[in-house]
Amino acid sequence: MTGLSWLLIGVGMSGFAVINSVLLHRRRQVLLDAIHEARRPLAAVMLGLDCVAREAASRRVDLHCTALRVEIGRAAVALDSMVGRRPCPALVPVDLSNLAEQLARAWTPLAARRGRPISLGATVSGDLAEALGDPAEVAQAASNLVANAVEHGSGPVEIGIQRHADRVALVVTNPSLRGERLQLPNRGRGLRIASRLVRRSGGQLNIRAGAVHQASLELVSASDQR
User: Which CATH number covers residue 205?
Assistant: First the structure.
């Protein structure tokens, strides 16, 4: 074989190695994302089940179960993402006010253990609280914001709904001692996933860092599209 032949073989093998490395890296990132998304909701489900067991005779049982279904759905989305099963989202009206209430119930047990109570802030109701999005993916993105506040914040967590012209946003606010670390959506895995998911529904993730950390999912208002 000539020197040119060996050179071409070497170039081909190097190219194959680079492509293989890129594909492995992408697969590893998908797997890490899925693991990240599955771990937290399953922990929330277990704590929620404890609440159900303690309150089995009260009318709050149904509220806990509804909140748990949101977190189980989030885990299902994560596992589907791991094997590439998620289709393009079908955008339908999503009641962000109702979602905020469900998230508050689902995360209250873990937040209470960390000394960070969750409350509902300013909100809107009815059609004004509806945004266009994929219900499961919007819930997954929103749950990431609450999880981030509970795990990395330093005080009470507030979940609210705001209107801005033809947009509606689910906003999570809490004091933060590490706000600078979370300034950009791509700095943390959970926030990066939330940003990707909300973009699939035609929205965006907004982060305002500082002494008070604010993260919001901003989506197109469903009421303005009718």
Answer: 3.30.565.10
Rounded to an integer, what distance in angstroms lies between the CA atom of residue 105 and that of residue 3? 70
CA distances from 130 to 91, 93, 161, 170 (A): 12, 6, 10, 10
Query: Among candidates 157, 143, 72, 71, which has minimal Cα distance to 114?
Result: 157
Helix axes 96-113, 61-82, angle to 10 degrees: 90
Q: How far apart are CA 2 and CA 4, in angstroms?
A: 5
Structural domain of 191: 89-225
Residues in Cβ contact with 217 at an 8 Å cutoff, skipping those fewer than 6 apart = 138, 141, 142, 145, 169, 170, 194, 198, 203, 204, 205
Would 59 be classed as within a structural domain? no
For the segment 192-210, the average pLDDT, to the nearest whole number, is 90
Asked if residue 118 is part of any domain, the answer here is yes
| Assigned domain for 186 exists | yes
The pTM (predicted TM-score) of the whole model is 0.67
Provide the b/e sequence for 138-156 (b: ≥16 CB within 10 Å): bbbbbbbbbbbbbebbebe
Range in 4-18, 60-74, 119-133, 151-165 the model is least confident about: 4-18
Strands (E), 86-211: 92-95, 118-120, 130-133, 157-164, 167-175, 204-208
Q: What is the pLDDT of residues 134-192, one digit of tens each?
A: 988 899 899 999 988 888 877 899 999 999 888 999 999 998 765 444 444 445 778 88
Place of tokens 């949101």: 70
Structural domain total, the chain: 1
Distance between CA 191 and CA 141 in Å, rounded? 8
